[in-house]
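Now for a chain:

_____
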Amino acid sequence: MASSIIALLLFLSSPFISFAASQAAKTFIFRIDGGSMPSIFPTHYHWYSTEFAEESRILHVYHTVFHGFSAVVTPDEADNLRNHPAVLAVFEDRRRELHTTRSPQFLGLQNQKGLWSESDYGSDVIIGVFDTGIWPERRSFSDLNLGPIPKRWRGVCESGARFGPRNCNRKIIGARFFAKGQQAAVIGGINKTVEFLSPRDADGHGTHTSSTAAGRHAFKASMSGYASGVAKGVAPKARIAAYKVCWKESGCLDSDILAAFDAAVRDGVDVISISIGGGDGITSPYYLDPIAIGSYGAASKGIFVSSSAGNEGPNGMSVTNLAPWVTTVGASTIDRNFPADAILGDGHRLRGVSLYAGVPLNGRMFPVVYPGKSGMSSASLCMENTLDPKHVRGKIVICDRGSSPRVAKGLVVKKAGGVGMILANGASNGEGLVGDAHLIPACAVGSNEGDRIKAYASSHPNPIASIDFRGTIVGIKPAPVIASFSGRGPNGLSPEILKPDLIAPGVNILAAWTDAVGPTGLPSDPRKTEFNILSGTSMACPHVSGAAALLKSAHPDWSPAAIRSAMMTTTNLVDNSNRSLIDESTGKSATPYDYGSGHLNLGRAMDPGLVYDITNDDYITFLCSIGYGPKTIQVITRTPVRCPTRRKPSPGNLNYPSITAVFPTSTRGLVSKTVIRTATNVGQAEAVYRARIESPRGVTVTVKPPRLVFTLAVKRRSYAVTVTVDTRNVVLGETGAVFGSVTWFDGGKHVVRSPVVVTQMDTL
């Protein structure tokens, strides 16, 4: 210890805490080896503020999921601190983005049955929602007939602008807000004219996700008449703890998100729902990703973490939140839609969608114009101040999707004197459609329909059109369909781990909304609505969060990995037409790169038969297998670790519910790879399971043993899956992979399926 103190004192003699006049200060996050603190300091905060940065420059001190602090320093000072013997890692604060009534039934839940029975399933479970806060007055957050708050709860209801302890109840049992990172990063600080410096939600996103996960029953719910009925979350009796980490104007910062993880674990949540991720195209390694680090700290304490897969689909390798201890959720449609057809003067009726609730056109035809006749331009995108009123006044304007918010394009049309808008997808969006609460008569159409309308407008001497708004239709087929925007695999960090893990409803989801903004979120939208309809993997994630709460309540001894396994191995792979799941962007059959293990079926997940469990030691072994050294792993795990020295472990042997065999691109000829899985019986004590193999085309898959026998004394059985492929003959296709499965049957109701992915890719 003496030598450590001498080293620290020598380091302190350098002028590292003085600002460099030529550099602007930024927020950095410092991962510190907590065990290196000299005994002369009573707390880590005293140590940090004495030896690393002035007290006034420290924003957050992290104790629970992460040891360290965030502070405002110059890049030179941050580089200087990297050399401190107690500093394990330094990373600049990074801005993240949000991955913005019928859906619970679509998960296999039925009123008054199973997990939605009259029992108190979920009432003992606490869901921590990391988002934009909450609007507590909504009916979805009533605590009527809810029992006492779980005694183990240690959280608080923080006070701030228009929010105080009276806004919490037996439903919203805690609420915090994290603004220090934002205050440091935003010039002039948070804009208090549009934000609430409190847990109150000025954006709406957090209210929507919270009520999707755990909203109470709200009768006569709708968004301006659309999707009318009873609105309720997946786990209506679960408790909510709101952690406001995102702000309407400035997004979400890693330093604040990490502080929320620290608080949520300390407070005693059981589930964390985080519909947040990168949107900058950057995929950071796990040890430089505060969401991955915070999630590991939570998962290691037995907390289930669900996250959104991102909205950058349908491009390959667009999935985000890739850590294997996080459950990553893609988005699908449900069997409800809001059709609005574009009717052309030549008699054609082209399918579209809309949530427009104003005065309809009632069949009246108007001239239709496309301002981008010469190709994509700012005018074709209907950007601000690009439309010439002389050309669009009194007409329906065709606008290309992209570069600005969809509903904002309608305002541009309105300002230029247009009477309506047809929003056309480009090739990248394909046929994927989402409804919007437009401020003028408008509908969205797919890429093919958009091209037809543009061709009509450019070729006909007097083109005219109208829009027919047809309200709400249920029973749509096929459904579910993989949303075109949903993030796709393969996993860009660890291709041996299939991501996303599964899909859940994420298109046109009705849930509670803030009173601070209208349904479009635009400042110029004066409307108020108790409920709103949104789309995104942000909406899919809380469905899985609520499902995890119900499973945790039913099986309190299950680990986060066991809960995820139960969901993944019991998914649906067919739609309501009993056909294979379809990719919305192409209209073709989807693959595990699109949907992971399949579509969540919570009814079956309640009794999965077998689960694939994963311990903290298993995750450490995985991190060793991908080339991380002990010091790098310690950044994630908080405690020192040792990696095997004799034989490097294989990342494919992580006991994941899916199986991916990755062969190097240089491989030629006949090759094999074997992975090990261990199944834990959570069903009947005496059970025999037999394997059924669906080998990918051109690949041979074998399982040994082909039969697993469980008894009262033997609850765990391991088996080996060997994948053999002749790389000279196998055709990987457009996705760069081929797909199959290994399924275990017990002869009764249990069907435990793992997708098998075979690909060629260079990895570490």
